[in-house]
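Hey, resending since the last one bounced:
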Amino acid sequence: MNPWCQWLAILPLLPGTVLGADILPPGHRPVPPGVHALAGARVIVKPGEVIDDATIVIRDGFIQAVGKDVTPPADARIWEMKGATIYAGLIDPCLTLNPTNRPISSPRTEFDAAATAGGVNFFGVPGGERGQSRAAPGYELPQVTPESRAARNFAPDKKGLESMRELGFTAGNVMPEKGILRGTSALVALSDVDPNEAIIKADTFQHVAFDAEGGKEDAYPKSLMGVVAVVRQAFFDAQHHGREHEYFREHPQGRKPPEFNPSLEALAPAVARHVPVVFEPGSALMVDRAARVARELELNFHVLACGQEWRRPDLAKASGVSFIVPLDFPELPKMPGQDDWDQVSLDQFRAWDWAPENAALLRQQGLEIALTTYGLSDKKNFRRNLRFALDRGLSEDDALAALTTIPARLCGVSDRFGTIEAGKVANLTVVPGGSYFDPDNKVREVWIDGRVYPANPGEAKSPGGKDSTTSVPDKDGKSGDEKKKKQEEMRELRKKRIARSPLEGRGPLADFPVVLVRGATIWTCGPQGILTNADLLVRDGKVAAIGRDLFKDKEAGGKAAFNVEATGLHVTPGLIDCHNHSMVLGAVNEGTLPSTAMVRIGDVINSESINVHKQLAERDSETAGWRESRGDEVHPRATGHQIRSR
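The structure tokens again:
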């Protein structure tokens, strides 16, 4: 019989797994077994759902079955997991493997704006250039690169991957780190496979940061209000770019084709709400402005928390979106002497005290949170800080959801990741003891795509059974036991918050529905002129009546009225400062261009400024905030204010 005919007769008899297996040339390493049974573990299927003494069956990188009565297949390798706890593999939604810059901070006060230098394509001014100055197609500002893709440059350092696996992470959303519109992040498996194979999702989020520090010193934008204007304008340009190209496709005759712009083209999925946008506001106040801008542009968005949302939780709550929360907490400074502590401000102590409570506070506002290692200079502090957050009110179920199900959903992969269920990718985190949330219970191993990766492979125990680090002094001369005791003392100190909330005591000193001011000289600034020995009735915040002897009127001077004796005092309409440079975040002026009519001072009003109290002390009741830029000084027209009944 012909040999080929013999093979054709045998093929239908071969099992499908043989036919589907990769046939590798000689010299390659053998493919590891693809079928595993993890038996006898405590399995946390998802937050709030636990199976004791369960078995997980993995086949070809996917979970085939999970349960208490699951029988391991005959071809499976059995892994004894008695006493271990298994979680769904942790996911970091904002991962930086090779960080080049720290998280932004946008609450800076006024600074001297850079000198005018013509700016972007502004010709007719010394230093300006006419025409496109970019070496390649793109947006006119170098800080706007939405076409950048983390997936294109993903080349992880092996130690970086190992450090994340030691923390129990099996996947991470690698994000771009520079610019204002920074480009798209990529969800990757934290395994040692080829980068092409590691990419799970190439374009997860478009990232926007209110970063005024990047770019050239004399180039637009250099103020926070300029940065917000750039974000707004870039999305407006992308909307127009899309409509222009669509119209050209429908009516190409007799028209010059619109220009090609990869930056605006890359923003199209975000404009269409297909790709979520992650805003990094940089401060608690700018959370509110980020939400306003995102809604103005009709974006699907999330917020990368700045860590100080505890200062204004009301603004975070009003945003109504998901927060990706870094566990990057400030450390107490080391002072050489007791008197040196006087150099540390009360607000610095309050920031240290409140930081661990930020995640729990956001949950108390009814907001969904995911947790991230973003901002940590040493990622080994992540689990310690997670314990601090739990000590300050974050529940373990909320913390587990913030590490598994919520980041999976935000990244758009909840159908494959985030829980331990049949059909999902076999990404698992294994700890030897009772809980991941005990920082001393180190991760034993992680499974990624059905392959096991030992975490902490270099860790060794002393012959006596004690951790070898306990007897070895550190650089400060303290042994491991002393260091652990110090850490426990610090944990106990952080469990109970000491500082009061910044919002405590905020608001009006008194709030009466009816107020009667009696016997004052009232400057109405209206047709009634100046009234002496007169009364002023205020009801629900509005002037209800002006006249004499209002106290004798039963309706006006009844028991509900709060009486203010004002004999010898003067009452005028609230003063208005119609050109004010105070109460602004990130510089009053955008001094990089001769005309900056695109910026809005309303984007950067600082309600927390001490100048608010100073203005009240000067008897100002309202302030019109204005900016000044060279060649663009704006003054409002004064309007008459009167005291009159409504």
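Residues 270 and 276 are 6 Å apart (CA to CA).

Sorry for the duplicate.
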